[in-house]
């Protein structure tokens, strides 16, 4: 039976805007006088429930509660400034909560940056010891792990060189090697993995997976990479403006989060022909991108087939028209340019559609432009950036977290077999 | 509720108490403490021309200046028989110990904010490491003082009478160390919150030097203003130190009791304040 390892109960953290760091001796004295001598309530707690930002108060974290059992890992997601790091700092004992408490069993270690406790004038060897002890290892642990740390970081030759002479890559490798050999019961990891290259991130995530799934330890993990949250964490917590927006099974929470943050312009329509985009030849009535999702709550990911639908008014009788569908990546690179075959049309409303199959595009942000052409060569109207959409990554069971290269990722038939078995 | 037999159960709360000094936790971080001391020595004397010789060079140079300025130019009386070199050097060594310990511990939060904001360990470890570092420096300087004393006795014929108060010397050093730690801890908390107090502290320490019997003996202070020096809890300690090492000094039991009481009260205040504020300060630095 698994037991509760960490219990976070109704944690809140209040910051007073503007007063931090200023000499507030007078304010402190008057607050103390009111509280202790006049026995009045703390003026800074009045109006606590009125809202998130209250004049000069900022609730960085507000009423957050959750429990974690042994071997469970919790991913914490949310936009910048949503309180993720503050929450981790409270649980790491670095800052004190304004209300609530955290209870836990066993040793807790936090990696909120790479190279905590490192001193640039000291040698690699000295820094392994000092950083290890700072992060909470004891003497036996450091001694036992010393060779492993050195091997993992690959800096054997530079062990007695001051780390200020290291390349930044060596520095990061050494710092992570120390952190990776901690053996706490609860590990807290902030977005530190963002610093390394793909190979390094893979190594780190592999180590963390081993840590939680093989050794049965508990992890709290903040990341902007939904892929690693999905793969590493059983539960996820979505923070918004310091409050808990969603807590539950990680893929469900990640999906809800992604659908809310995707920057979409999936549909545009104009009922009044006079204000519709276009010119004396062509006026657009509607453009939309319809995702063929099985579940309406799912985010758009690379598996989703997308149907581009459009309608426009044609102002000329007996004209040969074709429409070009241009897809651009976010950096402005054209991924494809697909024209429809030319057809004769008369005045009136014209409708068209084109389907991008699922498992074709890579993850990323895209936009679509439409061009209407007369006689396959004369441009009548170019409707730029009429649709924009994001595609999220989806990798299923593939345990690799680096950025997938290329503009497209089509599911082409691929075959491999053992040709000459060797016994 | 959370219970466990073998693993520590901990709780983080909104309120911090004055009385939560966790000695077991402090003890579990002792290896960090020793590494921090080692680090201080390594970073101070790596990539220097003279290396650890600086530990002796600095007080020697100060002593030469004092002998020259106060003894030769101004002609401050230093008492009867003690050679000026020994008189000044003994004062400088103890004063350096107080001054450097206080200076290092009072900057605990200011100098370690980058580590404190990223990882938890008992904050008291850092000032303790500073004090231990300074104690080692003091020990080296003190041994040098004894060497100079021996040179004067055997080579220069200094008529030295061994004083039974010599047994009090280690005790004096501990009291001076505790006093500097206490005042340093209090200042570290206050200067973290009210930054301009840092300037005040520098001036205060400079003035303190002049009302401490470092460059003059208490006996040479005029009776009518002697109380100013006697108000300074360091004065009896410096006098007793000189009495123990060089055999000359003016100490009353009341003065010594005052120094000890002052030290104990400030130590208690310092630990309470540091406990109470240590976890809150990270928000204000």
How would you describe this structure in keywords?
heterodimer, A: 423 residues, alpha+beta, Rossmann fold, 6-stranded mixed β-sheet, 19 strands, B: 285 residues, 11 helices, 66% helix, disordered N terminus
Structural classification of chain A: alpha+beta
For the secondary structure, the number of strands of chain A is: 19
**CATH topology descriptor of the largest domain in chain A:** Rossmann fold
Q: Which structural class do the helices and strands of chain B define?
A: mainly alpha
How much helix, percentage-wise, in residues of chain A?
A: 10-25%
Number of strands of chain B: 1
Please describe the topology of this protein:
The complex is a heterodimer of chains A (423) and B (285).
Chain A: E1 4-16, H1 25-37, E2 53-54, E3 57-69, E4 73-77, H2 84-91, E5 99-105, E6 108-111, H3 124-134, H4 139-153, H5 168-180, E7 186-189, H6 198-214, E8 218-222, H7 226-232, E9 235-240, E10 243-249, H8 250-261, E11 267-269, E12 282-291, E13 306-314, E14 319-329, E15 334-339, E16 343-345, E17 348-356, E18 364-374, E19 378-391
Parallel strand pairs in A: 4-8, 4-9, 6-7, 7-8
Antiparallel strand pairs in A: 1-3, 1-5, 2-3, 9-10, 11-12, 12-13, 13-17, 14-15, 14-16, 14-18, 18-19
Helix pairs in contact in A: 3-4, 3-5, 4-5
Chain B: E1 9-13, H1 23-28, H2 30-45, H3 54-74, H4 84-106, H5 108-116, H6 125-155, H7 169-193, H8 197-210, H9 226-230, H10 234-246, H11 253-278
Helix pairs in contact in B: 2-6, 3-4, 4-6, 4-7, 4-10, 6-7, 7-10, 7-11
Write a structural description.
The complex is a heterodimer of chains A (423) and B (285). With 423 residues, chain A is α+β, with helices and mostly antiparallel strands. Chain A folds into two domains: 179 residues, P-loop containing nucleotide triphosphate hydrolases (Rossmann fold, 3-Layer(aba) Sandwich); 125 residues, abc- transporter (atp binding component) like domain (Coagulation Factor XIII, Chain A, domain 1, Distorted Sandwich). Helices cover 23% and strands 34% of the residues of chain A. In chain A, a hairpin with a 2-residue loop joins strand 9 and strand 10. About 3% of the residues of chain A have low confidence. Chain B has one domain. Helix content of chain B is 66%, strand content 2%. By secondary structure, chain B is mostly helical. The N terminus of chain B is likely disordered. At the A-B interface, strand 1, helix 2, strand 5 and helix 3 of A face strand 1 and helix 2 of B. Strand 5 of chain A pairs antiparallel with strand 1 of chain B, so a sheet runs across the interface.
